[in-house]
Specification:
This protein is an alpha/beta fold. The relative contact order is 0.10. The protein contains 19 helices and 13 strands.
């Protein structure tokens, strides 16, 4: 009662001070238990990580004792897709097998519907690549976790988190001595380095996020990865910029874990240096293009052709922008009259591979677009064709067409130029910086960036005298020798040598 009377006689200021003192005493009493709890949780986490690391390393040591040699593993969940990234994979393994005969090689893949032998046969059929020795495949059951269809929103974040779980499955199935991410899943790198205790390297085809992507959102430009409902909203655009910036920070932290970084073009190099900030560990290794495989395509004047074929090579992914190709082709046809030199004198051939059901659905949509525009009879789709059929289509073509904005490199562009086609590529990325560039002062192709400029370029190419077209084609073929398999193997082996030297054999 006295305490209550005493407290009641306090002024308002004294009561506030008294309450603050009591709260301070309470927080101080809670602080020590909270600090102790945090230290305990951190210790448990560290012990758990060390325990997992020791368990994984014991698994690797047991495998080393059994095999008697180290193992290099490539993480490539879509190794049976048949695109440019897969050509890099098989050429890289072939080069390493030829140089290092006492090392085993493993590929982590999510292609569950085929056998390892069928995958290798597909590489031979599509790319004319045969490995000198057998390799081991580790089949991953949860590739769905990295497929964009699973994440209609926050796709980059969802796929990256999914890649961590898929990487964990790969690591627990097989612990290598050297881990190479050859498909761009940077968030698997710290997993294999810090938990698996592996040396890690990466070959980057395309940065998961780039400053160009940030610019698209900031400027509120609609793209395949920036839909209209986002670009039309100031709030959603601002939110997406923050999301992209935070993701870029995490992406840079993950990528910087790599002991060795190889990129496929000058464009990719600029972005990876700005994100991963590891210039001393980063080098450009141009991807291998089957230049020699197309050199036997005849290089002669095409003035007597009754029908000029425009060929496009690329997987049926949204960023390849096949819609732009079809719409630009429609503009060209609308400008031409029936008969000689008219509609019947042109056709568009779209050649590419389908990775999954989404790609197949995209092809159906593109076929529907052709019918809707009334050009279905002038557009052909060639899916998952053999190397021999690809060469045959190349031999019949006049123009090679490419429309991907900020293509990281452009193997299809190089292959068209090696086959002696007049190349028309997008005015951005690798094609602009590395490929469709002057050769000894001579023109090697054309660049465009929208429907009208593509249509105009096609008309201009077809209007050139056959002799002038032939000279451009010769320049193009001679200029792409620097992208041959042999050049790739030499540069790739030189870049890999420091890491390969760390393997105990």
């Amino acid at each position: 009662m006295c305490c209550q009377i005493s407290f009641g006689k306090m002024s308002g200021h004294d009561q506030l001070v008294h309450c603050l003192c009591e709260i301070t005493r309470l927080l101080w009493k809670l602080l020590l238990p909270l600090v102790f709890l945090c230290v305990l949780l951190i210790a448990v986490l560290v012990l758990l990580v060390l325990g997992v690391r020791l368990w994984l390393q014991s698994s690797r040591n047991a495998r080393r004792a059994r095999d008697g040699r180290p193992t290099v593993a490539f993480f490539h969940p879509y190794c049976n897709a048949g695109g440019g990234g897969e050509r890099v994979l098989w050429c890289a393994i072939r080069a390493l097998q030829n140089r290092y005969v006492d090392i085993n090689f493993v590929v982590y893949t999510g292609d569950l519907g085929v056998t390892g032998q069928q995958i290798l046969e597909g590489a031979r059929r599509r790319f004319n690549i045969v490995l000198p020795r057998p390799i081991q495949f580790v089949f991953l059951r949860h590739r769905l976790l990295v497929e964009p269809g699973l994440f209609p929103h926050f796709t980059l974040l969802g796929q990256s988190v999914g890649s961590i779980f898929l990487g964990w499955e790969a690591l627990t199935e097989f612990v290598p001595d050297l881990y190479i991410d050859s498909m761009g899943y940077a968030f698997t790198l710290p997993l294999f380095r810090y938990l698996g205790g592996c040396s890690v390297g990466s070959y980057v085809h395309y940065p998961t996020i780039s400053t160009d992507m940030l610019s698209v959102v900031r400027e509120r430009n609609p793209r395949f990865n920036n839909p209209d409902y986002v670009s039309n909203s100031l709030f959603l655009s601002a939110f997406k910029v923050v999301y992209y910036c935070l993701f870029a920070l995490l992406y840079g932290m993950a990528g910087s874990c790599s002991d060795l970084i190889m990129v496929n073009s000058s464009w990719t190099l600029d972005h990876i240096l700005s994100l991963w900030r590891a210039p001393n560990r980063t080098s450009v290794v141009y991807p291998p293009c089957d230049v020699s495989g197309f050199l036997d395509v005849p290089l002669e004047e095409d003035g007597d052709r009754k029908c000029h074929s425009i060929v496009s090579i690329g997987q049926f992914r949204p960023e390849k922008d096949h819609r732009l190709q079809i719409k630009a082709f429609k503009r060209v046809l609308d400008r031409r009259r029936e008969g000689l030199g008219g509609r019947e004198a042109l056709k568009l051939v779209l050649i590419g591979g389908c990775r999954d059901q989404q790609d197949e659905d995209r092809v159906l949509m593109l076929r529907g677009l052709c019918q809707e525009l009334g050009i279905g009879d002038r557009v052909e789709f060639k899916l998952n064709i053999s190397f021999e059929e690809l060469k045959r289509e190349m031999g019949e073509a006049t123009i090679g067409l490419h429309t991907m904005w900020n293509e990281h490199f452009g193997i299809g562009v190089v292959e068209c130029m090696a086959a002696g086609k007049v190349m028309l590529a997008h005015k951005s990325g690798g094609p602009k910086l590395d490929i469709v560039v002057p050769y000894e002062g001579g023109q090697t192709g054309f660049l465009a960036d929208d429907e009208e400029s593509y249509a105009e370029a096609i008309d201009r190419i077809l209007a050139l005298p056959p002799a002038m077209r032939l000279q451009i084609r010769r320049n193009a073929r001679q200029s792409v020798a620097r992208f041959s398999d042999q050049e790739f193997e030499a540069c790739f082996l030189a870049a890999m040598e420091p890491l390969m030297g760390t393997l105990e054999r």
